Amino acid sequence: DVYAFGTVWYELLCGEYPFKGQPPEAIIWQVGKGVKQSLANMQASRDIKDILMLCWSYRSSERPDFPHLLSTLEKLPRKRLARSPSHPVHLSRSADSVF
Fold first, then answer.
1. 73 neighbors 45 (Cβ within 8 angstroms)
2. In this predicted structure, what is the pLDDT of residue 98?
3. What is the pTM (predicted TM-score) of this model?
4. Which end of the chain is more exposed for a tag (fewer CB within 10 A), N or C?
5. Where is the Protein kinase domain (predicted)?
6. Banded model confidence at residue 41, pLDDT cuts 50, 70, 90
7. First vs last Cα of the chain: how many Å apart?
């Protein structure tokens, strides 16, 4: 469901889950009341934050469906990623010593 997608997307963007540090009962109560995780400290564009908030709409009828969500995401500007060269990892022990 789109709500769950928004939650996983938040975790990928922030490196932590929404409502971190709160007990499960408090999270369930907040989500049930329509409270959303604050995005004030999130390092993301306004467009991304708006899409995320739509995914977390209290009423499922107000959330975008996946085809609409995909279309919206595809319209976002793409950012080139700088990649560092990959180097093989040197293991300190042989495979024989592991087994």
1. no
2. 52
3. 0.73
4. C
5. 1-76
6. confident
7. 42
